[in-house]
Amino acid sequence: MKEECVQFGTAGSIGIVTTPEDFAADAQHPAVILLNAGLVHRVGPNRLYVKCARRLAELGYVVLRFDFSGCGDTPPRSDHRPLEESVLDETQQAMDLLHQRWNVRQFVLGGLCSGAVHALRTADIDRRVGGLLLLNPRSSNTQSDSYAMGKAALQKYSKLARTSPARFLRTVRRKIGISEVTRVVHSMLCDLGLRRSTARLDPDVESEASVCGRLIGRGMPLLFVFSEHEPGRESYRALLEADASRQSGSLLTIEFIKDADHTLTLLEHQRQLLECVTVWLEDVARFENRVQPAVADMTGG
Amino acid sequence: MTPDIIPFQFGDDDSPLFGCHHRPPAESTSRSSAVIICAPIGQEYLRSHRALRLLAARLAQAGFHVLRFDYFGCGDSAGDDQHGRLDEWVRNVRSAVDVIRRRTRVENVCLVGLRLGAALALLAAAEQPDVKSLVLWDPVWRGGEFVRELTTAQHEKLQELTNRELVDGRQQGFLGFDLSKTLLAEVEQLDLSGPDCLPACPVLMLSSARRKQSDSRDSTDQSGCAEMTLCRIDEDANWLTGPMRTVMPHSAIRTAVSWITKSCP
User: Fold this and answer.
1) Which one, A155, B142, B151, B226, has the greatest CB density within 10 A?
2) Do A259 and B161 touch (CB under 8 A)?
3) What residues does CATH 3.40.50.1820 cover in chain A?
4) pLDDT tens per residue across span A2-41
């Protein structure tokens, strides 16, 4: 396994390309590109992207981790393009780099949190993307996740109250703020039918599920991995499964990691995630042979 | 236009370290000192990355060549989490000093260290005569306290997620990082609180007001130090909270840039 610093594109994006020790330019694997998880720079939360890139390089994949403009080490752009456009532009430039330097023609985009959403949006406009690896996707509109976050908090604290009442009381006294109490009460009122849950109507989640539907329709395999404590997982799951049942369920894989938090802090959860990803990528590698003619057009769009 | 940040690798070919060289603008006054930033480790490394990048950018704007880098087994450098060792990291700081001198031909170096990075800077400075000044920001003086703080935070996280007790914290790492028993034993042995641990060169000690007092060295003890400036900063300094709650400690950054600009030619 080898690692090389790269600086590319109009934003001067800074990244690391991890390649197998004996990488051959005519290798058939897609390259994997990991997109920033929120504000965390390209090493990923808990250095997860580094661990993932090195594991995948051992299996023969080229992996690029890079920082969007204004995040991590990449300087901010000077052209005033909005974030939702610049991230797509810079991800496409990352694909251009891997094509020019490593002769890769097909890509799997992946990311955690906002990185997953940016991967999804890029796949929708660029046909070089042959698969998506979406870890705890979170929409930009986090306010409308209030119901799901309240529900998740309620489940967490109920479990704590049952198993360790003393610790539950300490947590209530020291850690729970008014905003969390408000979300919990809101979710309880929704469940009792006294308030309407906004989460199920979240326009971002609906829009992203609709993009997923289009991509599955295009024959693209998607892996979703959700942590148990992830607030938005139920709304995503319902929409995705409904969509998948209308199309091709075999292209959609949804995995759950028990007890895990948003950034997979515990090592056993990180190991489970890497296992999910590697197993799924083997399936993608088998699948890509079937879709190769559809992604041969390198012009995107 | 020449980029003002240049990513590069240095050190051994088979285990390279990652560095970011922030270059001063071409029109700025040429200085004969470079600044090397020694980051914390683990979750503190992630949480402080934006702040240290901003510090580097401000120093470059003030005319300094600045190097941020990752220790072996950390960030983008070679090695896994469990490969980190204290003595190796001190050697990495020295390699960083050598590489910035080769790249820029500057004569003097100022080391800026945050948390465990401050301890590493202090240890490296002791044997590096070209280090002419030090900034120690919320330094880890006693490694045992640092390991206890990490263990407590990990214990709370484990209970929050699984309601399991911490039988052996190392089975689940330390807030997402798989630090080895050997490293933890080395860190526990670390004690820089003695009177002979400070160097003879000028030192700025930045101390966040909201950190626990047990973390602090006796601020009146300046024995062995030629010139020490103490500065307490009233800013949030919980460097262990998750990266999604990243802080931007502007006062500390302003203070450090101002002191370095005055102290380093």
Assistant:
1) B142
2) yes
3) 2-141+203-295
4) 999 999 999 999 999 999 988 776 667 899 999 999 889 9
Fold (topology level) of A2-141+203-295? Rossmann fold (3.40.50)
Yes or no, beta carbons of B81 and A47 under 8 Å apart: yes
The token duo for B113 is 């260290």
pLDDT of residue A140: 46
Q: Which two tokens stand for residue B233?
A: 């900063």
Triad A95, A210, A56: Cα angle to 5°? 35
Find, among B5, B260, B23, the residue nearest to B137 by Cα: B260
CB contact under 8 Å between A266 and B246, yes or no, is no
Asked if residue B224 belongs to a domain, the reply is yes
Looking at the complex, report in whole angstroms how far the Cα of residue B75 sits from the nearest Cα belonging to chain A: 6
Q: Which of residues 243-262 of A touch B (CB under 8 A)?
A: 259-262
Which domain range does residue B77 map to?
5-142+191-263
DSSP B201: S
pTM summary value: 0.86
**ipTM confidence:** 0.90
Least CB–CB distance from A47: residue in B6, B159, B177:
B177
Most B CBs within 10 A among A2, A4, A5, A68, hence the mutation to make, goes to A5
